[in-house]
# Entry
Amino acid sequence: MTATTSSSAATATPAPLTDATRDEASLRRFLHGLPGVDQVGVEQRAAGLGTRSIKKAAKLWAIDTAISMVDLTTLEGADTQGKVRALAAKAKRPDPERPDTPQVAAVCVYPDMVETAVEALRGTGIHVASVATGFPAGRTSREIKLADTKIAVDAGAAEIDMVIDRGAFLQGRYLAVFEEIQAIKAACGSAHLKVILETGELATYDNVRRASWLALLAGGDFIKTSTGKVSPAATLPVTHVMLQAVHDWFAQTGELRGVKPAGGIRTTKDAIKYLVAVHEVAGEQWLTPDLFRFGASSLLNDLLLQRRTQADGHYSGPDYVTVD
Amino acid sequence: MGIFEYAPAPESRDLANLKPHYRPFVNGEFVDGSGEPLKTINPATEEVLAEVGTASVSDVDTAVKAARKAYTGVWSKMPGSERAKYLFRIARLIQERSRELAVLESLDNGKPIKESRDSDVPTAAAHFFYHAGWADKLDYAGYGPNPRPLGVAGQVIPWNFPLLMLAWKIAPALATGNTVVLKPAETTPLTALVFAEICQQAELPPGVVNILPGAGDIGAALVGHGDVNKVAFTGSTDVGKAIQRQVAGTSKKLTLELGGKAANIVFDDAALDQAVEGIVNGIFFNQGHVCCAGSRLLVQESIAEELLEKLRYRVSTLRLGDPLDKNTDIGAINSAEQLAKIKGLVESGDAEGAQRWTSPCPVPERGFFFAPTVFSDVQQSMRIAREEIFGPVLSVLTFRTPDEAVTKANNTPYGLSAGIWTEKGSRILWMANQLRAGVVWANTFNRFDPAAPFGGYQESGFGREGGRAGLEAYLDV
# Structure
């Protein structure tokens, strides 16, 4: 016997989890053996937590924390280098008139825009994230997905957002999904891997939980709700289920993995509800950009406006923040 | 506390329109009772809220006479459709004054504002709306044509849901044509007296509703009064037994809704995270001051450890403190006496060898508070498994098979409610038929609706409140 250590895992994965991925049958047994999710219950809890009172100091803290967790995103067919550079500038100085505004966590672009983004963000500490693997449908061959990932990583992306094969998942071919995530993780090298479950297409909370565990088992550093191209995208109850999954994963393995809701989170009020969920469902240690992100394009401006409102005592209006 | 401090969000206590003095309500007027005035206190701060005049035994007689006069002279003769109008009016007034009532209830009782505001007061209004609907349809309630009211109802209610229990008692009584003399609990009389104001606002005929604050002796005098036709009591089993003895041999109709030691049964295939929510809601709702609280957790041995770990984490996130703060999940214990009782039972749990775990949440220095507590390694023979604690204390037992779960769940002198957590529908139906409890919730807990009958088996009492079945208790059928 030779002792092996995994480079990414700080703690050895517990035996039941390594057994879970031995073959198709054991993986299916494991995923279907996870506790179910009761729809009424999870939606009730999500609604209940949404009523916490976050005002004044608490709100300012939440706004700044949320800003620091934003993955500022542009994922349009019409993206250009100019657009990406504008976004990078916004990421560096979200509110030019208020230099105490925190920077965002990352800028998220298509693989062909990584180089531009890396160039524009050099020396800022802001990560470049890239959606690879045939985003957003993922309907392409393994070779292309790997190549897509490699291109993004080689161009300097520190974070890769991959989409899982929902077709294979819904067919019950869990091992195929698992192996693909593992392969992409390997292709990422030192880059962090965020696994997009596209929860709107998985349809049930049970599926969301299974897909979350599948992604965690395969080595995903983050589990992410959506591409933003499918409706519904992120919802609070879905995020609750995913936060519960990383909490449970930590309890079993001692490893901290992150969660990223993406798509449809547009207002400060919404973002704060997510932070309350992070705080109370996963736990306080997840309240960091290392373990929680917002995938959003329009959220940032609302956060900035609300930040100004808190400081100035009045609402200044959308013309006082930049449109990029 | 941690890095994410929520902002305090206390409701303004001014909304409660708290007055320095409150008086009994007899024959449509607030009157000076001839009992010793009592001081009602805020259990969260121990400060005196108000002085409340109480009734004496002679006032009970005056109130019953007023109720009798209103019954024979007006209320029993009034067409159901007219009675319905009064009930609808009361329901709307409860809604209009809902914030006032919610704040007052939280001040007087100690329950969190989010519960008084989102649960107690809306459900109280719903009971009046629901029963208003029945008032002109009693012929179709299934008790034969033209069912008759009983007469004067003497009602005694507890301190855990002061306004809601009042609604459960008064709404069906009035809808069916009875008149009422009600005694609220000694420690929580205030919302009942604001309800009396609402009766005045609704221009309810004098004497239809009478409210007599006072202690147990007034309750006993009311229950024993010769001209009371119907007695309804919600409270402790001991008092319930005394009432039953007192009423025995008379023609009075009686319903009792007493204590409970409900089993919340979690199978290994349950949706665990939601089961944890249900357990928390089952025992920590209203500080555990709920007669149907899920105070005995029966968990399948194969998942006991995992579930307990999840449960402890979840309970540690509950926020205890100022009842008027909307962030508060657990408020104050209603009285020093109740707090002492909880402490005594918890000590017996320690002494009998159960494993006590207490949430590390901060506990205010003033006021009556008790941190949420979970006992594991509890055996059926321990006091904490058998006696009603009526506080935020959960006893966790285990079982191996569905049959054992049924046996253990039913192995109690009580039988008010039960909860089943499983993803297997057939098991839910099988269990629900086996469990001796008035309400069985499946994959949820503590859900109430005026249309759903509520009541118990064995020492949890008899008779039903709510729904069509609840009307029977106030009709001569």
